[in-house]
Here is the input.
Amino acid sequence: MKNTLTLWRFPNLRIIAIRLFMVAMIVGVAAPSPAQALNVGDTLKLGPITLMDGKVLTPEDLAGKHIVLQIWASWCPYCHRQNQNLMQLARDTKGSNLVVVGLSIDKDPKAAAQYVQKHGLNFPVAMMTPELDRAIGKRKGIPELYVLDPKGKVLQKDTGEMIDLDVFELDRFGK
Here is the structure.
């Protein structure tokens, strides 16, 4: 290690490095904090969402409705079981003030589309977009489920597979 160059062996470089670090700390670029995850009480405003079938789900389509927003992936077995329960919830609440929407985080949109077709998901499904990803923030796991009130306020957040009865009880938001 005697040939290794370090800042500490060169006082002038050390001073420059410390000054750069201090300036970076002041302007907030030295240690960026991770995106904060969306939590209960926060608001998520959904703009137009392009669904996998090419249709667009507009804010007007969702106006006055509670939204069950699930983040999932085609390769996730827990997401699969929860999707089956969400399909039942969508059937049970059809025509109510509750809408189930899925956001796939699959890297390959074809894999997500094949999953949707194979399993016959009966609720709107879209791919995660960079804008939604930033707005929702860092995930701790999948599936991740949010219940939004008609104004976009997060009323409930669940990470990991919910048991079927907990999913079916979400119908209370459609009444």
